[in-house]
Amino acid sequence: MLISSANLADHTIHATDAPERTWAELRETGRIAWNPTGEATGFWVLTTYEQISDAYRRPAVFSSTGGMTLDSLTGDGARAATAAAGSMLVVSDPPRHTRIRRSVHESVGAHAITALRPRIAALADELVAETVDAGPFDFADVIASRLASATICALLGAPESDHSRLGRLADTAFGTSASEAHPAWHARAAANAEIFAYYGELVSARRRRPRGDATSRLVGTHRSGERLTDDEAVLNCHGLMLGGNETTRHAATAGVLMLADRPDVLRRLQDGGVADAVEEILRLAAPAAHVLRTVRRPLRFHGVDFEEGDRITLWNGSANRDTAVFERATDFDIDRANNRHLAFGLGAHYCVGAAVARMELNALFQSIATRVRLVSGGGAPTRLRSNVIRGYQEAVVELHGKGRR
Ligand code: HEM
């Protein structure tokens, strides 16, 4: 059995380049490796684009109900995944997943995005305008975090006065909080409970008096005639809140770092390249570091005999660096043709918020393209200590406006 050279469950190694080296070694062998953890929770590691996309496409054999990240294998994480299984999208399997997915997709679909776009574009532009030529600042905190939490809260219809509190709660609940890496489980549990209580009230309010937001649409009757229960609506508000908060924030921060000291790329952005740049940022950043699946029945898969109950991990950032699919895979190349990255996953669970994330990132990088001549880096950024989200805890940069030299 091929053994992974680094313990990918160890949060601390994700604050370094070690995972990228391990992924590259494993891709080179072309084999699926075993990651022992010293406990009963060892897992298989999938690193090539082919292994990962095949696994994403087979929800009938690779179940999501056992949890979507390694965190769900132990303690309170396991209890939380069990409680939400079958009701929250990301921890559901077909046919329940298919039913709930239709409703959630309809709620955060095209018209939600059309309604939200001007507001998010204005906020992104305001945040960029405030920081241009204002000296070095932490982009992760000042722009990325505020924009991400405001977008997801506005989508769900939470009033503006609650956005920063909800953003902080979501950070703590997800366990990769920028201010405190891996807060204690009791803090996470308390934050989760507060988010559930908040959306519980919002769901009741929107049932009584619907508005034009995603929460109102979630609790309404859907085109299929489907109607989610209150519990399902609350669980999926929570799923949207956590799914959309840290991921998009870390893509934004990684993106600005990719632009640092690259005035040539900034010029390409100004020249209509924003959408392509966003895809390339998503490919290399791949903030959803891994997803977990549980094997439902014994099967042979890419040369390995999986047993029922085995856990497999799909490392999106590794698939996105696979040279079998992406030429010069580690280069930041916004002119890359056919950028079929897996940052949003694939298949049945393909990120339901992908269009929201793209809208938000396009708005942000459009403002940067319009207002900024040069992004300069302010020293080595600090990576997050997390095997769930790959990103930066702090990234000091300076935005130089077009008016100054
Ligand atoms: C750059 C930003 C984002 C990235 C990289 C990302 C990544 C992902 C990935 C990889 C999955 C698949 C999970 C799986 O297969 O188990 C997923 C699913 C999901 N995402 Fe995102 N996401 C992003 C933004 C968002 C946003 C903005 C929202 C909310 C508006 C959101 C809500 C969700 C939900 C609810 C699911 C579960 C879908 C399902 O199971 O059918 N995500 N996301």
TrEMBL record:
Family, as annotated: Belongs to the cytochrome P450 family.
SUPFAM superfamilies noted in UniProt: Cytochrome P450
Functional description taken from the UniProt entry: Involved in the coupling of aromatic side chains of the heptapeptide of vancomycin.
PROSITE patterns noted in UniProt: CYTOCHROME_P450
Name recorded for this polypeptide: Steroid C27-monooxygenase
A Pfam family it matches: p450
Lineage: Bacteria, Bacillati, Actinomycetota, Actinomycetes, Pseudonocardiales
GO molecular function ontology, one term from the record: steroid hydroxylase activity
